[in-house]
Amino acid sequence: MPHGRNSCVGTAAATRYLRKEGYMVEHITRPRCSSSPDDDDPASDQNLPGRQQHTICSGSCQSCSSLKMEELCFPQLLNTSCRKPTSPWANFVLLNIVLCFISLLTVALNLLVIISVSHFRQLHTPTNILLLSLAVSDFLVGLLALPGEVFRKIYCWFLGDLMCLFYYYVSTIIVCSSIGSMVLISVDRYVAICDPLHYTTRVTVKRVKLCVCLCWLCAVSYSSLLLKDDLTQPGRYNSCHGECVIVINHIAGVVDLVVSVIVPISVIVVLYMRVFVVAVSQARAMRSHITAVTLQLSVNQQTKKSELKAARTLGVLVIVFLICFCPFYCVALAGDALVSSSSASFVFYLFYFNSCFNPLIYALFYSWFRKAVKLIVSLQILQPGSCKTNIL
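Structure (tokenized):
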């Protein structure tokens, strides 16, 4: 919606514009620059019953058109205010209820994962540390990213340019850290399955913690570079008050596509294809009780079964991540012209719903998570020495 142009809008043009924007205009015979109704004019605003009016003027001749004030985010700002997002009341209520429920569920489930891995010492393993990092990202999605996106889509943004920038900045960090955690999980499973003899020496808790810290640090640095223009001048791309928009230039978009999509997905797919091939061969060897070269003699069958089960579970985790992740970037690359708004919204929310799916996968495949949840819900973790509980 254009604002503040120095041009003189005629009667016919003003009428066509208002109809295009969704306003009902019965008749306008001439430009009118007074903010009060003209009693002598049969097409005066007072002849349009049931309408709360204000005037928007354009250019030096101040051609004015009556608009409903309740349709503006900030009626007092007139020409610089955005229009309120409009949607059917039933869709509005249903969308709010569903998204709020999913947001609360995401926060609660991932908080259980965070408490479980942090509290019980038996769960302080390299793989679980990576799951903890992923759970923190998913927790922040439910706490900040998803509610912020719902608010931005459904309501006018009245929190200001700094909060808008903060929302996008935090959301970018969360997404980058989630992708980094998935890559680290794939590397962890690759070493555990393909090189089990050296896994305990190469992959230690301290090294994994260092990798997690570097992952989050890289996410913060990358987000700062990607949004550097907006960090120096917040709100530079907003066309009106009540809008929260961030624009990434073409070069930055190409770099982001390579760094956050092509490279990590390629690494994940290649590593897990290798893990799958080795895991299948090991499973066949164990079932037939045949000692193969790929099966190390110093590693017992129970350990192999445990690692294979973990590889299967985390494989499901990675596949679900890719199912939710890839459509989002495909729609982003296709652009608005090729994808309908409803389809784009569905794919976008599916991307965030992945944060709710992850804890459900843990509950389905990990018995230790189900036991930990029972201890947490029953408040037994508050008892002295509960951190030493045998959870495996």
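Confidence is low (pLDDT under 50) at residues 1-67, 290-299. The chain is about 60% helix and 5% strand.
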